[in-house]
Design brief:
The protein is mostly helical and about 140 residues long. The longest helix is centred in the C-terminal third of the chain and has 22 residues. It has a single domain, classed as Alpha-Beta Complex (Sufe protein. Chain: A), CATH 3.90.1010.10. It is about 55% helix and about 10% strand.
């Protein structure tokens, strides 16, 4: 699935919900479905700066695509991570760098996050873009 297709799928899914309480519950459900994140990866080196919650991120290049694993100690943050990973994990660095995360605005997520969660989301997106730039040599 391309980045644009993943973003559109998320936008379509969130359109089914009438209010933000339902959307938050959906985010929590998505977070519960994140792949297992080994305890050994929960190190200070993998800890994302700029988040109120603890967020750990690990990268690996696989067949020219940037694979991202991440988790948090917060249920809602895990849901946000799940959305970001659906869009950007297992995409080429070039595709990551040329595609803005429009789904965040389109589903209304940016207006419904606390300032600290919004900062954390921004930090996660910046970390992914920075790693993509490193891997692409940009």
């Amino acid at each position: 699935m391309t980045i644009d297709e993943a973003q559109q799928a998320i936008i379509d899914e969130f359109a089914f919900f009438d209010d933000w309480m339902e959307r938050y519950q959906y985010l929590i459900d998505l977070g519960r479905k994140l792949p297992d994140f080994p305890e050994a990866w929960k190190t200070d080196d993998n800890l994302l700066a700029g988040c109120q919650s603890k967020v750990w991120v690990v990268f690996e290049m696989r067949d020219g695509k940037l694979h991202v694993d991440a988790t948090s100690d917060s249920a809602i943050v895990c849901g946000i991570i799940a959305l970001v990973l659906r869009v950007y994990s297992d995409q080429t660095p070039a595709d990551i760098l040329r595609t803005e995360p429009r789904f965040i605005q389109e589903i209304g997520l940016s207006e419904h996050l606390s300032p600290t969660r919004a900062n954390g989301l921004k930090a996660l997106l910046e970390k992914i873009r920075k790693k993509a730039a490193e891997e692409s040599g940009a």
